[in-house]
Amino acid sequence: MKPVIALVGRPNVGKSTLFNRLTKTRDAIVADFPGLTRDRHYGNARLGKREFIVIDTGGFEPDAGSGIFKEMAKQTQQAVAESDVVIFVLDARGGLSAQDHDIANYLRRLNKPTLLVANKAEGMKEGSQLVEFYELGLGEVLPVSAAHGQGVRSMIEAALDKLVWPDELETPEPEESVIKLAVAGRPNVGKSTLINAWLGEERLVAFDMPGTTRDAISVPFERNGQKFELIDTAGLRRKGRVFEAIEKFSVVKTLQAIENAHVVLLLLDATEGVTDQDAHIAGFALESGRAVVLAINKWDAIDSYQRETLQRSIESRLGFLKFAPLHMISAKKRQGIAPLWTSIAKAYASAMVKMPTPLLTRLLQESIVLQAPKRGGMYRPKMRYAHQGGMNPPVIVIHGNSLDNVDNAYKRFLEGRFRKAFDLVGTPLRIEFKTSANPYDE
Question: Does this entry carry the keyword GTP-binding (predicted)?
């Protein structure tokens, strides 16, 4: 097992910047805005042969009374409980605050290995400016600059020295296939609630306020021996409602998460029906070639008439996702969420299916015998053979002559034949035509 290091501290001290520096990624959104990170965020890091996991947390208020700050505090407490070493990040320029004392008292009671780090210390002389931090009673204070990388290596070496490293940790384990599942939808549709229901713990902040999740949060998960990476995305609003710069960052992270996923679980709100924004998200997933599973959340909150209306709305507004399986669920009551895994597994298998060239060519010839393509211009399209051109999504390349004249209706006919033959569920299928060059054109 890799050791775990948690980054804690009050808001806007640079925890996410330090997280990105350690993981050598830009996975955590960084901006000069307090309270930006809300969920705990995991990332892999390495120093030499030593590998470890870093957890980025939201601004910590141990005695937060209620609301979103209480939920953020619970996330940080859970991260500290999971960690082997805690890095307590302070603001070297802002000085010591009452909140820092509260966090120090909380960490002292846990008696967990803790490292004090004064961030934003670039250009400052060691000594006098850092003296006040020693009154926290947690040992030596290390000055660093996460933004510029100064002192970060020494800091992580000091943190890792607090751990016992067995020899087997130095040998990297072989990587196994991990299915990346992005849970996408509009704000407040229940994405974080669904992931928490799967995990059986309050892993993500779920709060009755649109825009609670601001980052694309990745959570490792294993079910029946299959490893997953669950990605909770920020809710995508209409462009006219994205006012904050923070939300604009969140939209980018959500679109990136959809592009990088193997399967997208598109969550709809039964109480609000299918909106333009749902159609936009579905369209983006389709353009990205991602496998899609549809789930209608809060199904228990509507009556039979509303259910019929909603199903007709899905057929008309999301008709381009006919290949996607549809589920009715209630994430809050944990109803209907287990069958989602069957559809997710089938969608992934369909997206990664291998299609032998002889079988594809035989299916193509049988389709032509059943229904030949219409003549276009002077010539009738002649299709000779087909082969697979890619996966996730599956791509079928058909070679022949005069294929520029194949109409959309015949493309849909071929798609239906290929889908039925390979039992493709939940994934888009792309068919490309390549016309052979005529040597006598000139």
Answer: yes
